[in-house]
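Re: Re: ligand-bound prediction request (bumping)

Still looking for help on this. To restate: I need the protein modeled with zinc ion bound, output as structure tokens. Inputs repeated here so nobody has to scroll up.
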Amino acid sequence: MVDMSHYEKEENLARTEELVGVCRARGIATEAEPGRIEGGEDGVKDTAELQGMMTTPEEVDEFVGTGIDFLAPAFGNVHGDYHGVENIHLDYDRLASIHEKSKSKVQTVLHGTNEFTPEIMAKCIERGVTRINVNKLVLHKYNKYVAENTGKVPLTELMEKGTGLIQELVEEWMDSIGSSGKA
Ligand SMILES: [Zn+2]
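Reply:
Sorry for the wait, this slipped through. Here it is.
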């Protein structure tokens, strides 16, 4: 992963295009995430602030133009915790229009899914998302178990039970989002 957001837009795009070319020549797929939104310790920023950081139609054209394979738009999804489902405010219309605009060239990817419900996932999938990045949705049972049992049970048991807990949640989510049996 390369973060080039600290460059001016023109330089960011030029460097992205160069890197995409290097990767493509080696059979490596690339993904861009214009408008990445970080969730702070205090949870989600206010809605007005979020609006200003979302991926714009102009950015979609610019980044798709660099030759990327995957596009992860920011439409209210936040990296980190939302601190409650009531704090998740997604601009579904924006997601749908970004997908419509770019679907002939890229796959639409969903980031920032901590605390998402199956209903929220379904709405994103309906609007064109074909890949979903997950973190805590599949790790929260593992994290809790390891935190509570490290040093108390044998390491082999910790690892086996821990990975079992991840598998449980992965299977649940795969059923929920309709990806089971399709790999
Ligand atoms: Zn991301």
